[in-house]
Every structure is written in structure tokens, then in C-alpha cells.
């Protein structure tokens, strides 16, 4: 059975758990609590030298890292990944956008705000609010007249982008100016086997 | 013919140009000078709403964005991408690592240093030097006993990681503690049709 290392409240872990559940793939969750530094312990680094959660251990013992790469691995032979070369490029484009903008500007800011570290990071948060809002604007414009990000169906681009976007307001971002994002978040939450991000 | 928007001195553009040359794919380069803000002009944003370079326009008129997604698109049917599901996951893992660590910590720092903006960004540079060096250590350990990053052959993981790594010292990083990285950089520079990063 697949083994997923991480904690359920981590957005990057949640993306993988949500996909596993929605694809009906059984797995065993193994707690690696990054908030207690367990991701820096030698026994975990031996499995995943990147030192991040999540990591996915295959039955062969091979350990995959980077949540977005894991999403592609799991979805590759399903309609949740691209069916054509162009669809795959579009989905990958959004996965890179998510990691370099949404995770970087929105997830980080939400983490600081919830951990009581907003004051200590005030100048970075100011910049993140601007750059994160720019990213939300790009998403909102893209979604106008569409149901999902790529190919008019629910894919791993939606799984990845939904996670930190739907809780952006917990980081001080305003979703009211972005009705297409709000409607899309609602559609994601109505997909089969959806479950909410724990602790959000 | 494919059209590549960007400037040759941008590392993210160079990755795509290097791959195009090495795969023997003809293309037309169209200058979009991000240092003069041309990536924010309405006519460019109409092509690439992400507002970044590079972007690749296909003969159909479709425009691809995000350099790493473009690399996958171009290499998908060649030995420079993964031949198995596991190889593809490994290559994607390194592509995400490159964008979230090497491009973020090393490329940004090199840019500031070369643009005379090191003092204005001193505290972020201090953090970037630490986190970028952590990333180099992960790469160096991975490369021990290997010729290239994935599958013992030259792939787009190498193209992406090479670009900002081989000029890391221009940003104040020290490559001397990382002999496996240095030997790998040499091997990349010996691949067929390699050409150096302009202006580096």
C-alpha cells in the first residue's frame, strides 16, 4: 500500500490526500509533523532529502517528493491529468503558477497570520498581499466563462489551486472582487468524494 | 514556426532556447525585454496573462507559459523527458525544486547583485544565501556517483537546474564545497549543441 508522509492540516499534503480519495486509491497516512521539526529528522531526510512534506512512498520503497509532481504521478493515467500534449502543458503551467505564486504568496502569508507571526513579517506580508492578489486576478480572469481551469473538467490543476486559494481570506486576502474564483471554489467542493481541508 | 518571446540573457528563456537548439527544433525569437517592462505591456499580456518571459507561441496561435511547463511540452516525446511514469515523476520533482528553490533563492540573488541592488535587499539576500546553499547541498549529494539528475542521461531536469546553478557564484554562492555539482556542470557543457548563457 502507498504510504503518505505528512500531516492532514498541511495544504500541500491535503492536495495529495484529496486526490488519493477522489481517485479511490488506498493509502496509509504516516504522521510527520513539520511544525515540530519532524521533517528535519535524519530518518525522514533519509526517505526524502528535500526535507518537506508530503512525500509518497511507493510499494517498491521509492519515495516521491514535491506535491505537484506527486499529483501528476497519481493522476497520469486518469482524466484528472491532461489527455493531450497541450492539455498537459496547460495543467503543468498552472501547477508551476500555484507553487511559485499561490503557495509562495498566499499560503506563506496565511501561515504567518495564523501562527501570530504577522507583525514580525509585516513588510514581506505587504508585498505578498499585492503579488498574491495579482495572482488571484489572473486566476479570476482565466475562470470567466469556464467551469474548471483546463479542459472544462476537474483536474489536478483545480486540486492544487483550490487548496490555498479557498482559504486565502485567512491570510488577509479579499476574494470578494473575484466572483469567478468564488463560484469555482464552490464547484470544487461539490466534486465526488470531496472533503474539506482539516483545521481550516 | 514556433515563436519564443523573451530575451536571450534571461535564464528562464535560455533554458527553452537551449532545449530547442539541442532538439533541433526551429523557432523565431521575438524580443520582449522584461528589464524595460515590455512583459507588462497590454499586447504581451494579451498573449501571456502571466506577464512573464518566456512564452512559446505554437503554430496554432496557442501561447504556452511557465518555462518548466514549456520544457516538458517540447521534450515529451524525446529521451530528454521521462520514459516511465517514475522517471517523469522524478524529472518533475526536480523541475519544481528548481523553480521553488534555485530560481527563487539563487537566480533572484544573482539578479540583485548584478543590478547593484544587493544593499537594498541585504536581509533577504542573507536568507537566500542560506536556503540556496541548502538546495545546492541537496543537489550535490544527489549527484554523487551519478552523471545526470535522472536516469543516467541528459534530460530537461539538467537543463533547468544547470541554468542558474552554474552562475550561482555571480550571486555570492560558493560552489567549491560541491564538487559533484561542478563536475556535472562540466558534463552539461559538453552535451551536443550546447551554447553558453548569453551575458553570463
Task: Summarize this structure as a short list of keywords or feature phrases.
homodimer, 200 residues, alpha+beta, Glutaredoxin, Glutathione S-transferase Yfyf (Class Pi), Chain A, domain 2, 2 domains, four-stranded mixed β-sheet, 4 strands, Glutathione_S-Trfase (chains A, B), Glutathione S-transferase family protein (chains A, B), Glutathione_S-Trfase_N (chains A, B), GST_C (chains A, B)
Description:
- Chain A has 200 residues and is an alpha+beta fold.
- Chain A folds into two domains: 2-75, Glutaredoxin; 85-189, Glutathione S-transferase Yfyf (Class Pi), Chain A, domain 2 (Up-down Bundle), CATH 1.20.1050.
- Chain A has helices at 11-23, 42-47, 67-75, 85-114, 122-143, 156-165, 179-189; strands at 2-6, 27-31, 55-57, 63-65.
- The first copy, chain A, has a four-stranded mixed β-sheet, covered by helices on one side.
- In chain A, strand 3 (55-57) and strand 4 form a beta hairpin.
- In chain A, helix 5 (122-143) packs across helix 7.
- Chain A binds chain B through residues 49-50, 58, 62, 64-66, 68-70, 72-73, 76, 85-86, 88-90, 92-93, 95-97, 99-100, 103-104, 138, 141-142, and chain B through 49-50, 58, 62, 64-66, 68-70, 72-73, 76, 85-86, 88-90, 92-93, 95-97, 99-100, 103-104, 138, 141-142.
- Chains A, B: It comes from Thermostichus vulcanus str. 'Rupite'.
- Chains A, B: Residues 84-200 form the GST C-terminal domain.
Amino acid at each position: 500500500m502507498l504510504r503518505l508522509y505528512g500531516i492532514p492540516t498541511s495544504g500541500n499534503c491535503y492536495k495529495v490526500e484529496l486526490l488519493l480519495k477522489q481517485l479511490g486509491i488506498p493509502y496509509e497516512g504516516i504522521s510527520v509533523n513539520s511544525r515540530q521539526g519532524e521533517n528535519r529528522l535524519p530518518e525522514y531526510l533519509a526517505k526524502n532529502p528535500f526535507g518537506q512534506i508530503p512525500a509518497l512512498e511507493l510499494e517498491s520503497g521509492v519515495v516521491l517528493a514535491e506535491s505537484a509532481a506527486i499529483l501528476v504521478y497519481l493522476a497520469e493515467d486518469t482524466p484528472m491529468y491532461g489527455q493531450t500534449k497541450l492539455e498537459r502543458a496547460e495543467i503543468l503551467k498552472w501547477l508551476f503558477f500555484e507553487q511559485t505564486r499561490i503557495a509562495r504568496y498566499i499560503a506563506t502569508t496565511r501561515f504567518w497570520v495564523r501562527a501570530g507571526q504577522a507583525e514580525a513579517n509585516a513588510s514581506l506580508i505587504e508585498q505578498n498581499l499585492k503579488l498574491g492578489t495579482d495572482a488571484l486576478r489572473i486566476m479570476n480572469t482565466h475562470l470567466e466563462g469556464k467551469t474548471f481551469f483546463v479542459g472544462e473538467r476537474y483536474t489536478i490543476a483545480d486540486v492544487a489551486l483550490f487548496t490555498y486559494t479557498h482559504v486565502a481570506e485567512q491570510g488577509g486576502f479579499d476574494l470578494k472582487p473575484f466572483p469567478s474564483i468564488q463560484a469555482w471554489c464552490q464547484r470544487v467542493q461539490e466534486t465526488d468524494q470531496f472533503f474539506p481541508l482539516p483545521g481550516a
